């Protein structure tokens, strides 16, 4: 069996973990809303038409923020269509996904759902076809107490108290030619700055996320960030990053190494932010908002079939990736990477939450179940709170097509408010288990070890409605803790949560 070691010390702290790194995302896309969170007539639907089986699964994830209503969808969306009496709401063509949006679920319904699901909204404004005017009006509608046109309209529509939405995205992927109303960096930087300014004039307590590049692979990546931040640095709080990975060539070792690319991406964007801040002699440091991240590739062919049904349908089954066991391992490593960069990554929204590239799947009229990727998100959200520790890890490494010296053991640790230590670890080795020795000398008084593991002999194993627990975590014996030293076995190809408590 291979060996690895880890040193943990409370003096090696990266910083406080912002719980919003366990956020998620719901877009008006496919069956995310209609058939996902909302299905009146479903046996579990409540009086508002929300599926309680879905809410139960969402609540277990304990998601602090949920981004809404898009995504590409938002760049053609008129928010005013989504308020007022439902039977009078306009049906509109959605040019992002070529479907028809009925607006049956709108702003007030989403706020109700957030309350039920125990999450807070992260609302994206349309900077594609709209601009600062619509953006400041929706902030007034949502957050101003009353006595103005839009705040009184909210009250008339049934919400006496302001929604108090604290976190806002300034558009979505504005660098993409696929984006409705896409922009050059300078065009976007200017409009983002003007929108940010007036939104904060309406409510100075809000926080704003500017659109970084839609992907590190965009030819404009880097220049885009420099140009837009040059325009809006002082009026925004975060810059967005989007990252999706796939394994189309069926190279598990290379696929599991992709979180190294994520780490490089984070470091590069941090450098750009700080270069702009430095140039501006600013005292402010921008945070990073990974407002879309996940594995996404399984559904690409299937979507081509769905489009054949023609345009302007409702709730087509789009982007319905069925996740396998190796996807859950990479998702685990992506979460570990966010924790390792907790000093700068303040928000991360797994894209998305239900049905659309999602940890939760549903069948219309049928069941709801957890996909494989649900588990690492649940574990990290449950135990990865408090302080991120800078774990010093010594591990065997391997080379693959795109990366050299990939750590076989990808691991980090957190210190909870109750003094407990949690180690998150992915063993990337296809062949062997690993004996991990953890030096916990600085953490006296810890005596109990528990070990939960997500493991399966088949990397392509999936969960289905009929077999929802095929890939699900189980507890295994928790190793040996003696004199501040923990020795524990990490199975080959596995996601691990090791808790050392009082
Ligand atoms: O999450 C799916 C889509 O991916 C989003 O609408 C868009 O922002 C990104 O390209």
Task: Describe the protein's topology.
Layout: E1 2-7, E2 13-16, E3 23-25, H1 52-61, E4 65-68, E5 92-94, E6 99-101, H2 107-117, E7 120-125, H3 132-143, H4 149-156, E8 167-170, H5 185-202, E9 207-210, H6 223-232, E10 238-245, H7 252-256, H8 259-279, E11 287-295, H9 300-307, H10 325-340, E12 345-350, E13 360-362, E14 368-370, H11 374-383, E15 387-389, E16 392-394, E17 397-398, E18 406-407, E19 409-415, E20 421-427, E21 434-439, E22 448-455, E23 474-476, E24 480-482, E25 485-490, E26 494-501
Parallel strand pairs: 1-21, 3-4, 3-12, 4-7, 7-8, 8-9, 9-10, 10-11, 11-12
Antiparallel strand pairs: 1-16, 2-15, 5-6, 13-14, 15-19, 17-18, 19-20, 20-26, 21-25, 22-23, 22-26, 24-25
Helix pairs in contact: 3-4, 3-5, 5-6, 6-8, 8-10, 10-11
How would you describe this protein?
Helix 6 (223-232) crosses helix 8, helix 8 packs parallel to helix 10 and helix 10 packs parallel to helix 11 (374-383). The chain contains eleven helices and 26 strands. It has two domains: 2-9 and 389-501, Golgi alpha-mannosidase II (Immunoglobulin-like), CATH 2.60.40; 18-383, Alpha-Beta Barrel (TIM Barrel), CATH 3.20.20.80. It has an eight-stranded parallel barrel, surrounded by six helices. It has a seven-stranded antiparallel β-sheet with strand order 2-15-19-20-26-22-23, covered by helices on one side. Strands 16-1-21-25-24 form a five-stranded mixed β-sheet, with no helix packed on it. The relative contact order is 0.16. Helix 5 links the parallel strand 8 and strand 9. The protein has helices at residues 52-61, 107-117, 132-143, 149-156, 185-202, 223-232, 252-256, 259-279, 300-307, 325-340, 374-383; strands spanning 2-7, 13-16, 23-25, 65-68, 92-94, 99-101, 120-125, 167-170, 207-210, 238-245, 287-295, 345-350, 360-362, 368-370, 387-389, 392-394, 397-398, 406-407, 409-415, 421-427, 434-439, 448-455, 474-476, 480-482, 485-490, 494-501. The chain has 502 residues and is an alpha/beta fold. The protein binds alpha-L-arabinofuranose (AHR). Alpha-L-arabinofuranose binds next to loops.
């Amino acid at each position: 069996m291979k060996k690895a070691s880890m040193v943990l010390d409370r003096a090696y702290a990266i910083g406080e973990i912002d719980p919003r790194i366990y956020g998620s995302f719901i877009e008006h896309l496919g069956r995310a809303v209609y058939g996902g969170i909302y299905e009146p007539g479903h046996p579990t639907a409540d009086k508002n038409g929300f599926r309680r089986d879905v809410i139960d699964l969402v609540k277990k994830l304990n998601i602090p923020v949920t981004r809404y209503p898009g995504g590409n969808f938002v760049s053609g969306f008129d928010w005013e269509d989504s308020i007022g009496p439902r039977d009078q709401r306009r049906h509109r063509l959605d040019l992002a996904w070529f479907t028809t949006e009925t607006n049956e679920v709108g702003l007030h319904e989403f706020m109700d759902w957030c309350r039920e699901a125990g999450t807070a909204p992260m609302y994206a404004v349309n900077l594609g076809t709209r601009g600062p005017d619509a953006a400041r009006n929706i902030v007034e509608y949502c957050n101003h107490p009353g006595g103005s046109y839009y705040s009184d309209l909210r009250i008339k529509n049934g919400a006496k108290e302001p929604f108090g939405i604290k976190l806002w995205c300034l558009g979505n992927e504005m660098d993409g030619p696929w984006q409705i109303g896409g922009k050059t960096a300078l065009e976007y930087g200017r409009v983002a700055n003007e929108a940010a300014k007036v939104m904060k004039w309406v409510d100075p307590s809000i926080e704003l996320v500017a659109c970084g590049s839609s992907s590190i692979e965009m030819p404009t990546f880097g220049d885009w960030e420099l140009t837009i931040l040059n325009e809006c640095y002082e009026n925004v709080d975060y810059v967005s990053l989007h990252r999706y990975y796939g394994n189309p060539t069926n190279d598990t070792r290379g696929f599991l190494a992709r979180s190294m690319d994520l780490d490089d991406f984070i470091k590069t964007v941090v450098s750009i932010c700080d270069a702009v801040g430095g140039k501006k002699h600013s005292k402010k440091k921008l945070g990073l908002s990974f407002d879309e991240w996940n594995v996404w590739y399984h559904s690409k062919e299937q979507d081509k079939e769905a489009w054949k049904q023609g345009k302007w349908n409702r709730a087509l089954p789009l982007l319905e990736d069925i996740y396998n066991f190796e996807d859950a391992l990479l998702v685990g490593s992506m979460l570990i990477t966010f924790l390792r960069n907790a000093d700068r990554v303040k928000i991360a929204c797994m894209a998305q939450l239900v049905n659309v590239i999602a940890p939760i799947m549903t069948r219309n009229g049928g069941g709801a179940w957890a996909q494989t990727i649900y588990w690492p998100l649940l574990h990290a959200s449950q135990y990865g709170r408090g302080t991120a520790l800078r774990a010093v890890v010594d591990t065997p490494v391997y080379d693959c097509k795109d990366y050299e010296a990939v750590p076989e053991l990808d691991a980090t640790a957190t210190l909870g408010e109750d003094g407990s230590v949690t180690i998150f670890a992915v063993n990337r080795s296809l062949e062997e288990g690993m004996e991990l020795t953890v030096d916990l000398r600085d953490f006296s008084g810890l005596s109990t070890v528990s070990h939960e593991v997500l493991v399966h002999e088949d990397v392509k194993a999936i969960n289905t409605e009929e077999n929802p627990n095929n890939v699900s975590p189980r507890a295994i014996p928790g190793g040996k803790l003696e004199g501040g030293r923990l020795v524990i076995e990490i199975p080959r190809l596995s996601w691990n949560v090791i808790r050392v408590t009082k």
